[in-house]
Amino acid sequence: MPDAELVRRCRDGDANAWAELVDRFSRYVYAIVVQGFRLQGHDAEDVFQDVFAKAYENLSSLRDDGAVRPWLAQLTRNACVDRIRAAPREDPSADVEPPGVDDTLALLDEALSVREALDALSDDCREMLDRFFTRDESYRTIGAALGIPSGTIASRISRCLEYLRQEFLGRNPGVTASGEVQ
Amino acid sequence: MTDETTIGRLVELLRALPPAPQGWVEAAQELPLAQRELDEIVARAEADAEFRAALVADLETALARAGFEVRPRLAAAVRRRLSA
């Protein structure tokens, strides 16, 4: 379901759509909080929850339903900055945004595009790549979970990565997976 | 750029988005339910001066006595709404 349709359903009070929206963007928000702004523990959890609470309360103010992704990124960025500002700091005059945050956010944005391409693959491929690369599961664990011989997993991962490459480049013509324009 | 390099970059990008803790995701997904609960508490406080006074005096105890499951986020949200 496109982002715009998902947002429209959330605004209509569809709780299942809201659960799907959280599921779709939870990794992205989490990564901005933890990798981009280096928040940890309760700070990270509070910001994560605050972002989705604000998103839920303010969905009606979103002018372009299709722009929910940059909107959430900005909400997250603002919430992180507010959190850092509110905490005691050794040097209050120091920049609240960690160095390199823009580069990290650009990388996470690209990573979310890859996840969108991943979602277009077969369930088997999506599950295998997600388990191996983002959940750090072993071949044995993956094999047991998916009911396939662990000896075949390496070749399956390789094949699925190629499908992912084709899907990603098909969705982003003229752009390599490094973000370069050809 | 070779296909192998592209694959390497894709792997890096896949690894950049690990899952958020499951409990965090579930709490965020339950927001509509929490919102309904909050609306119910506030409506009751507006209609029942005694309940409102009990909330102002000791919010957590008043919520528990009224049968609500007291959670820090719910309590904080009720406080915000009552003071608005």
Question: Can I get a quick summary?
Answer:
Chain A is mostly helical and 182 residues long. Chain A folds into two domains: 1-100, Orthogonal Bundle (Rna Polymerase Sigma Factor, Chain: A), CATH 1.10.1740; 120-182, Winged helix-like DNA-binding domain superfamily/Winged helix DNA-binding domain (Arc Repressor Mutant, subunit A, Orthogonal Bundle).
Proportion of residues in extended strands of chain B: under 5%
Whole-number radius of gyration of chain A? 19 Å
CATH superfamily of the largest domain in chain A: RNA polymerase sigma factor, region 2, helix turn helix motif
Extended strand count of chain A: 0
Classification by helices and strands of chain B: mainly alpha
Q: What is the residue-averaged pLDDT of chain A?
A: 89
Spans where pLDDT lies below 50 across 5 or more residues of chain A: none
Number of domains of chain A: 2
The profile of the biggest β sheet of chain A is: none
Rounded radius of gyration of chain B (Å):
22 Å
- How many separate domains make up the residues of chain B? 1
Describe the largest sheet of chain B. Answer: none
How many β-strand runs of chain B? 0
Calculate the terminal CA-CA distance of chain A, rounded to whole Å: 29 Å
**Percent range for β-strand residues of chain A:** under 5%
Helix-strand string of chain A: HHHHHHHH
Helix percent band of chain B = over 70%
CATH class of the largest domain in chain A: Mainly Alpha
Q: What does this protein look like?
A:
The complex is a heterodimer of chains A (182) and B (84). Chain A is an all-alpha fold and 182 residues long. Chain A folds into two domains: 1-100, RNA polymerase sigma factor, region 2, helix turn helix motif (Rna Polymerase Sigma Factor, Chain: A); 120-182, Winged helix-like DNA-binding domain superfamily/Winged helix DNA-binding domain (Arc Repressor Mutant, subunit A, Orthogonal Bundle), CATH 1.10.10. Helix content of chain A is 69%, strand content 0%. Chain A has helices at residues 3-11, 15-36, 41-58, 68-86, 101-119, 123-134, 139-146, 153-171. The two termini of chain A are 29 Å apart. Chain B has one domain. In chain B, 79% of the residues lie in helices and 0% in strands. Chain B contains six helices and no strands. By secondary structure, chain B is mainly alpha-helical. Chain B has helices at residues 3-15, 22-29, 31-47, 49-57, 59-65, 72-83. The N and C termini of chain B lie far apart (58 Å). Classes of the chains: A mainly alpha (182), B mainly alpha (84). Chains A and B meet through helix 2, helix 3, helix 5, helix 6 and helix 8 of A and helix 1, helix 2 and helix 3 of B.
